[in-house]
Design brief:
This protein folds into two domains: 1-87, Orthogonal Bundle (Multidrug-efflux Transporter Regulator, Chain: A, Domain 2); 89-118. The chain has a three-stranded antiparallel beta sheet with strand order 1-3-2. 56% of the residues lie in helices and 6% in strands. It contains five helices and three strands. The termini are far apart. By secondary structure, the protein is mainly α.
Length: 118
């Protein structure tokens, strides 16, 4: 059976590694490897030794996945960025700069649209 997207429906407190694998589209061995590379990713273990992930762990996995697969970070770069205070874009100065740049683009577009036929 293929990998599924995020599970819809009732929210559980804990998810087994197989469920997290299906939710995130990552193989279980990748999740286990990331535990060794990202010290803040540390799911609980049951008395039987099974990993159980809570919602925060899953959000962390999804953030790491996005940083590595979509934003092009290396494992070392993603680890350092997350340890320095969160994911990229969560800093107010970065958000302000992006907002100012977008406002400038909007102003240019509005100015160029005034002379055009509608």
């Amino acid at each position: 059976m293929g990998k599924k997207g995020p599970v819809q429906g009732a929210e559980k407190l804990f998810y087994k590694i197989r469920e997290v694998s299906e939710m995130t589209g990552l193989e279980a061995y990748v999740l286990r490897y990331w535990e060794s590379e990202f010290p803040f990713l540390h799911p609980r273990k049951t008395k039987g030794g099974q990993r159980v992930y809570d919602r925060k762990d899953i959000d962390t996995v999804l953030t790491i996945k996005r940083m590595l697969y979509e934003e092009g970070f290396t494992i070392d770069g993603a680890r350092k960025r997350l340890q320095q205070g969160g994911e990229p874009g969560n800093h107010p100065e970065v958000v302000l700069k992006i907002k100012q740049e977008l406002q400038g683009i909007l102003n240019v577009l509005n100015a160029s649209g005034r002379g055009a036929a509608r």
